[in-house]
Amino acid sequence: MSQPPSESHGDTELVVTTAQDDAVLVLRLNRPHRLNALNESLVDALEAALAQAVDDERRAVIITGTGRAFCAGFDLKEDRDDGGLRQIDGQQRLAAALTSLPIPVVAAINGLAVGAGCEIALACDFVVAGSDAQFSLPEVLIGTGMGGGTSFLLGLTIGRIKASEFVLLGEPISAAQADAIGLISRVVEPDQLPAAAEELAAKLVSRPPHAIATVKAALFRGLNQTFADALSAELTEVHAAHFHPDSAALMESFRHRSTGRTPA
């Protein structure tokens, strides 16, 4: 597997990739000296690692952070002489990569998920957080706007009223609060976070990959289409899946279990 690019600070690897097994890839953001805040190089490295996961036919991806933070947002010490256009472009590219990836992505939130860090989590398929995790979208506090597709995804995820409270106040919320409003999938004790993310990834790996890819794409597509379009797309997808060899075997096995007969 090709290695992501390095940055000048200590020549450290920006995204540490660890193969849990042949099916699951763990990506660990690795700028702990900046609480894993994003810069252009880290965005590029994460994009490359996600693309490589597809090329390597991984079945699930886990994203987490090194040290005491998942990601503290976009690094405000980085040069912003273009009015923040490179920053917003990077955030949007990550959101597009995560939501379009045909592989399920589990965000394992250790500590802070601020700004772009929270937006990365929002673009993942599952968000497992340690009980000490903290989420915030403080853009309004620094006089800027949301990026990374959050203006679209947040209200659909937690509802407009809760989204308004979250972003217009800009105040941090705990993992328990995030769980209560539906921002995350589940909360675990901090020392159980890696195991919980791996257990979830293992369950996802046990599902047929073509079905996972089809349903994930349908869920995101369904956020931005009419009901009639959704019905039409589902007809095409279910028909295609019916003739997939893996689906045929699964359906045949299910029919035999439901009737109590043993396959020949």
TrEMBL record:
The protein, known as: Enoyl-CoA hydratase
SUPFAM superfamilies: ClpP/crotonase
Family classification: Belongs to the enoyl-CoA hydratase/isomerase family.
Described function: Could possibly oxidize fatty acids using specific components.
Residues forming coiled coils: none
CDD domains named in the record: crotonase-like (cd06558)
Alphabetical UniProt keywords: Fatty acid metabolism, Lipid metabolism
Transmembrane segments: none
Catalytic activity: a 4-saturated-(3S)-3-hydroxyacyl-CoA = a (3E)-enoyl-CoA + H2O; a (3S)-3-hydroxyacyl-CoA = a (2E)-enoyl-CoA + H2O
Signal peptide limits: none
Gene it is expressed from: paaG_1
Lineage: Bacteria, Bacillati, Actinomycetota, Actinomycetes, Mycobacteriales
Gene Ontology molecular function terms on file: enoyl-CoA hydratase activity
One matching Pfam family: ECH_1
Gene Ontology annotations of biological process type: fatty acid beta-oxidation
InterPro entries, per database record: ClpP/crotonase-like_dom_sf, Enoyl-CoA_hyd/isom_CS, Enoyl-CoA_hydra/iso
